[in-house]
Design brief:
Layout: E1 9-12, H1 13-18, H2 21-31, E2 33-37, H3 43-53, E3 55-57, E4 72-76, E5 79-80, E6 83-84, E7 106-114, E8 122-126, H4 127-137, H5 145-148, E9 156-159, H6 179-184, E10 189-192, E11 194-196, E12 203-205, E13 212-215, H7 220-237, E14 240-243, E15 250-254, E16 258-261, E17 276-283, H8 284-287
Parallel strand pairs: 1-2
Antiparallel strand pairs: 2-15, 3-17, 4-17, 5-6, 7-15, 7-17, 8-14, 8-16, 9-10, 9-13, 11-12
């Protein structure tokens, strides 16, 4: 089948702020990824824009959230006196944000403040087109029998914070939580493996990487084999988009329809190799009630 290019929605900042809230929310859901080009990298207009799209969702890593904007998380490879100023490479693996929460109708956004000379991109997989390709593959002789026999629409996957790939790959990245952060997490949540988007009606293969650790009613080892096989297929055949940031870019993506990953990037002392982004999550389902 091969891999094709995923095309994001691209808007000027002025175009985005002049759109009605419901129209902008719908456009992001349909395109799955939106790139808003802005000449500035100011926090206040960024936060205001995201609040129009939904209710802020605070991140579990509170130690990296801004003092005056607790809903904003710092993403950075910069270290001072050996300590990171933000989340460094905790997201440098394929995953879906907030899939470990019951309320998973979440948009993620990044405001680009400092762009390193090399690397620093965010990469996306289209899980709507990916599901369509999985269904076509399941009808071919190339698909393993244990996948062909599945009724994907009937399956419930169990999710928790972490990276399932670490169970088969010793070099896999993962974000380490402190005990108090682990204690504050929901122990395990269930989501359909095939999810229907409440805004577009489209079906997607939901969060097949990282946080999905099992399938209801199945032995863990077999469930992981199924999830790994489906994810490996997406990796090879689903459309992708890689965003190369410029200062002031606001990138927003719909977590119901995508997987994403950040780069593996070296530590910086704040020079030309420094990366700094501000991340904010909002629950667009909450936004439907006031936009």
């Amino acid at each position: 089948m091969g891999m094709t290019q995923m095309v994001p929605l691209t808007l000027d900042y002025r175009e985005a702020v002049n759109m009605p809230d419901h129209q902008l929310r719908q456009a992001i859901a349909e395109y799955k990824v939106a790139v808003i080009k802005c000449r500035d990298a100011a926090l206040e207009p960024y936060v205001d824009l995201m609040k129009r799209l939904g209710k802020p969702v605070h991140h579990i890593l509170e130690n990296f959230c801004l003092t005056h904007y607790r809903e904003v998380l710092t993403i950075s490879n910069v270290y001072e006196k050996g300590a990171p100023l933000g989340v460094h490479d905790g997201g440098a693996y394929w995953h879906t944000d907030m899939s470990y929460k019951q309320a998973n109708t979440v948009l993620t956004s990044m405001l680009s403040v400092k762009v390193p000379d090399t690397s620093g991109e965010t990469e996306f997989i289209d899980c709507v087109s990916g599901l369509q390709r999985v269904r076509s593959w399941m009808k071919t002789g190339e698909c393993p029998d244990f996948i062909k026999e599945l009724n994907l629409d009937s399956l419930q996957a169990s999710h928790r914070f972490g990276n399932r790939d670490a169970l088969r790959n010793a070099d896999a990245k993962s974000q380490v939580l402190e005990k108090t952060q682990r204690d504050a997490m929901e122990a395990q949540v269930l989501h359909p493996l095939v999810i229907q988007h409440p805004l577009t009606g489209a079906h997607a293969l939901y969060a097949a990487a990282a946080t999905s650790f099992g399938i209801t009613g199945w032995p863990d080892e077999f469930a992981r084999q199924v999830l790994d096989t489906l994810f490996d297929f997406l990796l090879l055949h689903a459309p992708r988009y890689k965003h190369h940031y410029q200062r002031g870019d606001i990138v927003i993506w719909d977590n119901l329809s995508t997987l994403h990953r950040g780069p593996v990037i070296p530590k910086s002392e704040g020079g030309r190799d420094a990366r700094l982004l501000y991340r904010m999550n909002v629950d667009f389902n909450e936004g439907l009630h006031h936009g």
